[in-house]
Every structure is written in structure tokens, then in C-alpha cells.
Amino acid sequence: MKLLLLLFVSINVVFASQDWNAFKEKYHKVYKNSKEENYRKQIFLKNLKVIEEHNKKYTQGLSTYTIGVNKFADLTHEEIYSSSKSSTRREVTTVRSSPTPKFIPRDDVPESIDWRDYGVVTPISNQELCMSCWAFAVVATLEAHVGIYEGRNVSLSQQNLVDCVDPTFTCSQYLDIHALDNTYQYIVDNGGIDLRDSYPVEYYTVGSCRFKSETVGATIKAYGNITEGDEEELKAVVGTIGPVTVTITTDFSWDLYREGVYYNGDCMNTDEIFNHAVVVIGYGSEDGEDYWLVKNSWGTYFGQDGYIKMARNRDNNCGIASIARYPLI
Ligand SMILES: *[C@@H]1O[C@H](CO)[C@@H](O)[C@H](O)[C@H]1NC(C)=O
Ligand SMILES: *[C@@H]1O[C@H](CO)[C@@H](O)[C@H](O)[C@H]1NC(C)=O
Known about the structure:
Blueprint: H1 2-26, H2 34-59, E1 65-67, H3 77-80, E2 113-114, H4 133-150, H5 158-164, H6 179-190, E3 193-194, E4 216-218, E5 222-225, H7 231-240, E6 244-248, H8 252-255, E7 257-262, E8 276-286, E9 289-295, E10 307-311, E11 324-328
Helix pairs in contact: 4-5
């Protein structure tokens, strides 16, 4: 019995080492020294256990999505989102958006839509470890609207926003609840946003503002608000106008999402709400679960080639319709 147990334990250790080596190879992981590697390995093995436990729940029908090893599996959730010290805190729930003044057609809202089918969704970007998700999300949204309303395929400059919207922004800063408003307002007031080719991304850094009006890539007249928490309005706008930038609350299970419709009953039970900004590029239903189709900016290693399906019509899960904004070209 003891021998069997020993055998079982050592087989597990061997498997874990194989998993670790396969992970390092697949994602080209290189560590400073063996101490660092050992530390990363412990996090990885912990995550591996969490993944196994979660996916067991999925096979028992207790969860609607699976998670799995991806590029981020040797990081903690806190590391992916930098230090949690300056995070957006709970009190932000008091923020109310004004009722949207403009006309939103609610007839003819399609039952499902995926703006990728219209050839207007630009490739997935990678923000690396700069907390500039808001800049990447607004750029991805605006690029799609330029495709829809102007028939152009542009690459716009995230760095323009990182450098110019808020002079006090740093890459380790948590998402500010006004970030989307400030960013869209900046693009309105500034007379547009630069092309990425003339204002390229400088990973991990914030520089001085170097916007040049000669190389402007897109302009907007104004931006629109979704009434806080109104998923029907979000559906109407995504279905009839175009993609929408949203802020959400995430945890490690979001970071390691693999497939299915992501629903997390615990995601608002945290101090750090609205820690990420992403783009809703569509919606639909799958196996009886309504979902939002969401574009992330962590490269194609994340989720399903960079995308995640998040629960829709389940009480505004993870705050997806809480702070939602879109450009008006
Ligand atoms: C959207 O709502 C925010 C938060 O209430 C507000 O500051 C902003 O002015 C609104 N913008 C528009 C275009 O309605
Ligand atoms: C737009 O251009 C990029 C870069 O050339 C290309 O990869 C992409 O497929 C084009 N189409 C869309 C919809 O992004």
C-alpha cells in the first residue's frame, strides 16, 4: 500500500515536471536563475491544480467554462495586473452614467452578431505588462468603427493615448474608472488619434506626448454611454452600431480561460473591481448560455485566439455593462 502510494506520488512528480518542461518550451520561457525558475514552477504547479479542480467542476456540470494552461500560467493574478495597491476600489459603484440622450434603434437588433464576420475587427494586440488595457481597448473599438463607417482598415496608436491622455499615468497603475471617458474625450478634443506606424508602441514605458496632426489616423465627433448595467442597451448598441469598450472585473480564472461561457458568481466580491478594459465585439448564445464575445489585448495566447465568451443576461456578470462607451464617428 505504502509502496503504491509512493509510486503514485513519484509518478505525479514526474508528470508535473513534464508539464512544467512542456510549458517552458511552448512559451519560450527563460528565467534568470534556478531560484527564479523554482519560484515560477511553484506558481505554475499551483495553477495546474486549480485548473484541474475547476475543470472537474465543469465535467460535473457545475461550471459553464473550462480553464487551462496558457502563457500566463507561471504568474499570479496580482502580477498580471501589477501591484494591487492603487487599484480602483469598491466605492466606484456609486458612479452613474447619464441616460443616453441619442437615438438607439431597438427594432431590428439581431439575435446574435460577430463583427469579425464583417471584416472590421483588426488583429489582436498585446499590451505586454503595461496596465494600458484602456488604451488598447479604445483603439481596438475605434479601429472597428472606422472599418464599419469609413471602410478603412487602420492601425491606430495606443502609445498616443498612453502618453497623452493623462500625464500622471504609469504602466503599473490600475485602471481608473474615468479612463474610458477621459480617453474618448481626449480623442474628441485632440482632433483625432495618430496612426500606429507614425507613433509606435513602446512597451512598458510612458513618454512625453508626441501626437502629430499630420498623421492622424481617425477622428470622432463624440462618444456614447451605455446606461450603467443595462445589458439590453449594450446588446442594441453592439448589434446595430458596433463594438463597445467595457471595463470588467477579473480574477485568475479569467486569466486562464479556455472555452465555454465564462461566468463567475464571485467576481464582484472583491476590493478590486473594474481592473480590466476590453471590447465587446459581438454576442450570441451557445448551449443555452447567452454570451458576450469579448476581445482582449494579451496576444493570441489568451483564451480562444485572444477572445473570451463572457456570460450575458446573468445580472451584469463581472460588471460588463457597468462602464461601457463607444465612439461616434
Ligand atoms: C458618460 O458618463 C460619464 C459618467 O457619468 C460622464 O462623465 C460622461 O460625461 C458621459 N459622457 C457622455 C458622452 O454622455
Ligand atoms: C487589416 O490590416 C492588417 C495589417 O495589415 C491585417 O492583418 C488584417 O487582416 C486587415 N484586416 C482587418 C479586418 O484587420
